[in-house]
Amino acid sequence: MIQHTTSRREREDQQRRQDILSVAEDLFSRQGYHETSVSDIAKNVEMGIGTVYKYFKDKQTLFHELMVARVEETMKHLLGVVDVDGDPYEIINAFIDGYVDYVSRNPNFLPIYMSQIHYQKAAPERFRNDMARIHECKTTLLTKLVDAFDRGVEQGRFVKVNSVSLMVALFGMVMSHFLLATSEMISDEELDADEIKQTIKTIFFQKVLVDETK
């Protein structure tokens, strides 16, 4: 069996593509898609604008490839965390830990993720297969969370609330917590992943109102 050996030129091209994507991710997350130009990306990656266009047809293609790669990476990571048949409470705990750990290590992810939510409906036809693949991956993840809540309710571990509503509440909580944490309101504070995990679990799994009769 003949094995393909990557040439130095191919390795250099791969590294340049990755450098462009890394710089673009930082700019898109800080400035937004519309406020970031290919010229901005070329300047910050220290390449000529023609070199950037050599690897990416246009800004939309660059953003699309970046967004697809990051969202698929995240969903596969989270699926690996929840893809077990075990105690529902432990599965939800593992999801919270996995989500917080991933976003803490990849602070530029959430702005990109939020952008793709609005981008999905307007994606050109040439990108529809990619968007369908992402949608399927997200649906699989959310379905597994709903299943864990279903089993938890049946076992009497969770309150009798619609499992889809519980999934939406959990997903919204972990996502919005990071969106607020990275906003200008508290952007100067250092994020502590363990503290964030504990805060989310305390709010989600325990009552917010204090029982004043005790």
Structure description:
The chain is 72% helix and 0% strand. With 214 residues, the chain is mainly alpha-helical. The longest helix is centred in the middle third of the chain and has 27 residues, at 128-154. It has helices at 8-31, 38-45, 49-55, 59-82, 88-105, 109-122, 128-154, 163-181, 193-205. Helix 1 (8-31) crosses helix 2 (38-45), helix 1 crosses helix 4 (59-82) and helix 4 runs parallel beside helix 7 (128-154). The protein has nine helices and no strands. It is elongated.
- What's the story with the biggest beta sheet? none
Helical fraction: over 70%
* Poorly predicted residue ranges: none
Global morphology: elongated
* Classification by helices and strands: mainly alpha
Tell me the fraction of residues in β-strands, as a range.
Answer: under 5%
Number of helices: 9
The SSE string, one letter per element, is: HHHHHHHHH
Summarize, please.
The chain is mainly α and 214 residues long.
Topology (SSEs and partners):
Layout: H1 8-31, H2 38-45, H3 49-55, H4 59-82, H5 88-105, H6 109-122, H7 128-154, H8 163-181, H9 193-205
Helix pairs in contact: 1-2, 1-4, 1-6, 2-3, 4-5, 4-7, 5-7, 5-9, 7-8
Keywords:
single chain, 214 residues, mainly alpha, 9 helices, 0% strand, elongated
